[in-house]
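Hi C.,

You asked whether I'd gotten around to modeling the 644-residue construct. I have! Everything is below, sequence then structure, no commentary in between.
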Amino acid sequence: MRLNVAMVLRIAFGVTVKRTVNPHFSWFVVRNCSHTLHEVSVAKRSSSEPRIAISKEKRSPFAKNLFLGKFDHDVLTYPEVLDTEKLQRLENRVESIMKFFNEDVDSKEIDMTSEIPKEILDQLKAFGLFGHLVPEEYGGLGLNATECARIDEVTGLDMSIAVTLAAHQAIGLKGLLIAGNEGQKNHYLPRLAKGECIAAFCLTESEAGSDASSIQSRAFLSDDKKTWILNGKKSWITNGGVADLFIVFAKTEISDHIGQKRDVVTAFLVERNFIGVSSGKAVDKLGVKGSNTCEVNFDNTPVPVENVLGVIGEGYKIAMDILNNGRFSMSSSSVGLLKKLIGLTAEHAITRRLYGKGLSEFDLVQGKFAILTCATYAVESMIYLTTGMLDTYEDPDCAMEIAIVKVFSSENCWKGVNECLQLLGVMGYMTGHPYERMLRDCRMTMTFEGTNELLRLFISLLGIQHAGLELRDTVKKMRNPLMNPGFVLHKAWQQRQQANDSPKLNLGLDGYLHPSLQSAAKLLEYCVLRLQYGVEIVLARHGEEIVENQMMLKRLADVVIDIYAITAVLARSSRSYCIGLPHADQEINMAVTFCHDAHLRVRNNITAIERGPVTNNDNNYKSIAKQVFNNRGYFAAHPLSRNY
C-alpha cells in the first residue's frame, strides 16, 4: 500500500493533516520527526505480533498515462520496498559479492582470454547468483526486483560476467518462470538455480534480427504425435556454447477454426543432449569477450511434446514478455559500471596537474563531472523507482518503464564512459588500463535485448495506442474541422496557451514534493502537459499513418523518457531530504540541475513536432538519406573536383 504524508502522520501519531490549509507544512513535520518515525517503524517490525499480509495494489500504467497528460501523484512517493531486516541481509550479501569482485575477479584476464575462469563461475554459483530470480521452492534465492537490481550493480563491474548471468536468468530461464508448467519448473529450475545447468535464449536469426515474427526455424509434429522435429539456425546466442538448456522459438503450423493452415511461433525447451543440437565456434566480439556468443544449430532435433513452453502459437508473446522484463538487468549493470568509473576518473582529476593547476579545478572538467554525475543519479533513481513498481503493484504494466530505463541507462553509460576517457587523456586509450575495455564492454548495452531505435518506437507506439483509445473521437473531430466547427474552436481556445508554449499548470505536483523542489515540480508539470499536446498534434496530423513517421515517434519517446527521469530524481531527492540522508542537499541540487536540462530537451522536441517535417529538417534528412542509398554511399563530389 502506498502511503502519502498525511496517512503516515495519521497512522504513526494520530495527526490529521489537511493539505488544503498548508500543502508544505507536512514536509517540515516529517523532516523534524524523521527519527521518531524510524524508531516507530523499527519497533513495529521487531514486534513479536504476527505480520499482517498486505495485498498489492492494482494501478493503472504510469508512463502510458503520461501520453494523456495524466500523472499519478503517488509515484512521487519514492518506494521503500525492503524492511530493515531484508535490507540488512541484502547489503551483507552485496558486501560479500563486492569483495569477491574487487579481490578475485581479473577482468583484464577475462577480456584477454575471452573466457571466465571456472573458479570464478563456481564462486558465482556459491553466491546463488545463477538463481537469485528463481523462487525459493525451486532452490533459488527468490529475490524481488529491487534486490536483483542491487546485486546487478555489483556484477556489472565485469560486464562479461553480467552478460553471462543475464543471459542465463533474465532471458534464459525467465521463460520457465513466465510460462512453464509445474512439471517443467520442478524438472529444470532446481538445477538452473544452482548453476548445474546453464540456460540460453534462442530467438535471433541472421536474417530476422530483432523481428521475431520473421524467424525461419521450423518444427513439425511427428507422425506418432509424441515429438516435435525442430530445424533451424540461431545466431549470436549468448551462452550458446556453454548452455545445457535452450529456450528455442520456431515456426509451427496450425489450422484455424475453418481449417485454413497458418504459421505461428511456438517456444520449446531443448536440452543440449537432444539429437541434432550443436554449437558453432565462439565469435570474437568488440567487447564483453568473456561471455560466450555463438551460433546454435538444430538438425532434425526431436523435442518431446512435454517440452513445449506455454501453448502452441504463443511463442511470440512469450518471447516479448521475456524481453520486456529481461532487458532491465542491463540497466542495473550500467549504473554499477558508471559509479565505478566516476570514482576512478575523479581520482585521476584530483591528482593530475596541468599548467600548474589540478585538473579538477578547471571549469570544463567540473562541468563534465557534474553532467555525468547527474545522469548517473537519474539512471539509478529510475531503476529503483521501476523496481518499486514491479515489487509493489499487482500485475504491473511496466513494459514501457522498463524500455525507458534501458534506453536512458545504456545511452548515458556510453556517453559517460566516453567522457571519462576524454578526461583521462592518452591513459584512457591505453590497453594497460581498464578504461578502453569498459568503453568496448558498455557499447553492447545499446544493442542487446532490443536496439534503442526499436525500443523508442516501442515506447512511443505503446503510448500512442494507449492515448488513441481515449482520444479517438477528439482526433476524428480535429481532423474534420468543417463538420465540427464548434468543437474545433473550443479546442483551439483550450490550446491557445499550449501554442504559446505556456500550458496552464494544473497538476499540482509541487504539493507532493519538498518545498525546495517547487520550481522543478513546475518544470515537470510543463513537460507532462507538453507531451499531451505533442500527442494530440501527431494524432491529428497523421492519424494511423503516424507509424510511418518515425522521427516524430522518436521525439515523443525522448520526451516521455525525460519525463520519467525527472519524476524519478524529484521523488528520490525529496525522500532523501525529508528523511535526512547524507548529502541530501546535494541530491536536491542534482535533481534541480537535471530537471532544467531535461526540460530544455522536452521543449525542443515538442517545438520540432509542432513545426512539422517541412520546417524541422525531417524531410531534408530523408532526402539526403535517399541520395546516399541511391549512390550506395557518400555522394558529394570531392572538394578538389572541377567541372571542366
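If it helps when you're writing up: The beta strands are 199-202, 218-221, 227-238, 245-255, 261-271, 277-279, 293-304, 308-309, 353-354, 357-358.

Thanks,
B.
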